[in-house]
Amino acid sequence: MSSTIPLNINIKEPRWDQSTFVGRASHFFTVTDPRNILLSNTQLENARKIVHDYRQGVVAPELTEDELWRAKYVYDSAFHPDTGEKMILIGRMSAQVPMNMTITGCMMTFYRTTPAVVFWQWINQSFNAIVNYTNRSGDAPITVSQLGTAYVSATTGAVATALGLNALTKHVSPLIGRFVPFAAVAAANCINIPLMRQRELKYGIPITDENGNRLGESAKAAQQAITQVVISRILMAAPGMAIPPFIMNALEKRAFLKRFPWMSAPIQVGLVGFCLVFATPLCCALFPQKSSMSVTRLEPELKAKIQEISPDLGRVYFNKGL
């Protein structure tokens, strides 16, 4: 029995058109599917084998096109696009919703006391450090020193922001106080991501032409990539940290939560989770994963090199990371 699927399906690219927001959103709804973290190593390795075999022109007779795309997305959910290494479980995009809903929900529930602020901001930045390292762009290594600097700086920045804002909001409405964790998270993202990816800012990230041919490394491309990721991360956190405070503020005035105050945390976690199910893929889709920039915006030496090799090349491409 011969395979009925064609051998020219471009599984290096997502299944949906990435030039449109809807196409990118469809792609990331699949990539961030929390069910992917439940897959066994055997299932992940099987997906990798299917993808690698297909790229070599080897297709199992019983394989269907839907199964091929499923294998591609399972592979993408667990293996780094540039290095091919299996990513840390909690750093994968499929772990974003369950991890963030738990951490964010607890940050927003236990924000009144200093020990609680310090503990949950520390937990959140520890998780962010793992995510930022796991989803870094390119194949450049990061040193222990760089990792430690980014982690300590982001944690310190988040805790200082949260404690400072908590002090300022002691005499205002409790509703305003509920937004302190979001301000701290936004500030920490502006610190954590650039520091975690500082090597890219110094040495650049791989840039290619539209056919994937590597042209060099560009720090200018890294700046654009990291800026896009910071914006996406802040907006990703916004719905889950901006909508539940209004709901919880209203619920805490009701008899139910006055009678069962211990339900506050699970309700808050659930509300955050509901928001994140949609916010995570939609905000990941704001910018194309395969971002591009004009050759004229590159470093002078790199621009001159490219124009010498390909005078007609107008744009270069790069993986912005997540």
UniProtKB/TrEMBL annotation:
Compartment(s) of residence: Mitochondrion membrane
Which terms in the Gene Ontology molecular function aspect does this entry carry? Answer: monoatomic ion transmembrane transporter activity
Q: Where is the signal peptide?
A: none
Name of a matching Pfam family: SFXNs
The record's keywords, sorted A to Z, are: Amino-acid transport, Membrane, Mitochondrion, One-carbon metabolism, Transmembrane, Transmembrane helix, Transport
* GO biological process entries: one-carbon metabolic process; serine import into mitochondrion
**Coarse class of the protein's main subcellular location:** mitochondrion
Provide the transmembrane region boundaries: 175-195, 230-247, 267-287
* InterPro entries cross-referenced by the UniProt entry: Mtc (IPR004686)
Reactions catalysed according to its record:
L-alanine(in) = L-alanine(out); L-serine(in) = L-serine(out); L-cysteine(in) = L-cysteine(out)
Q: List the PANTHER family hit by this protein, alphabetically.
A: SIDEROFLEXIN, SIDEROFLEXIN-1
Family in the record: Belongs to the sideroflexin family.
Q: What is this protein called?
A: Sidoreflexin
Source organism per entry reads Alligator sinensis
